[in-house]
Amino acid sequence: LSSARAQAYREYIKTAVVILLVVWAILAVVGFVFEGLLWLTIIGIILFIGTLIVGALRQRSRGKK
Fold first, then answer.
1. Cα–Cα distances in angstroms (integers) from residue 37 to residues 4, 27, 49, in the given order
2. b/e map 30-48, b = 16+ CB within 10 Å
3. Which residue from 31, 14, 24 is spatially nearest to 46, judged by alpha carbons?
4. Which of 28, 33, 54, 55 could be a cystine partner for 17, CB 3.0 to 4.6 Å?
5. Do residues 49 and 41 lie in contact, with contact meaning Cβ atoms separated by under 8 Å?
6. Contacting residues for 52 by C-beta, under 8 A, at least 6 apart
7. DSSP 1-65
């Protein structure tokens, strides 16, 4: 990949991770607000943490190259 395309790809991935984090946080809040949807809170929290971990690992592995 050219330098410009690589940079654009990195920005796209960062944007996608942020959007996922927002969606997972919204799911967790909705699940917390509606008591019958407590399972949604648990799923939202798990996905939020998972996305953070994957994003951090990808960012660190990219820094070593």
1. 44, 10, 19
2. ebeeeeeeeebbeebbebb
3. 24
4. 55
5. no
6. 21
7. --HHHHHHHHHHHHHHHHHHHHHHHHHHHHHHHSGGGHHHHHHHHHHHHHHHHHHHHHHHHHHH-
Q: What is the pLDDT of residue 33?
A: 85
CA atoms of 20 and 58, how far apart (whole Å): 15
The tokens describing 38, both together, are 């407590």
